[in-house]
Task: structure prediction
Amino acid sequence: MSFGVTELIIILVIVLLLFGTSKLKSLGTDLGSAIKGFRSAVTDEEAQKSEVAENDEGEKTVEQTSESSQ
Result:
């Protein structure tokens, strides 16, 4: 069961009539800011993981160098 273009337009008109443009605008703004916050959190988490991985590699290299010099 798939929706055609005409069905989607009818649903959109009904939603506009029920909620009004001001509520839809505020809902869209809230949804956009939530998505933006989620993306920034994911990006920060990935950056933090890569920093930890780089630090772990650096520590292993230092440990290997100190072991080989002894």
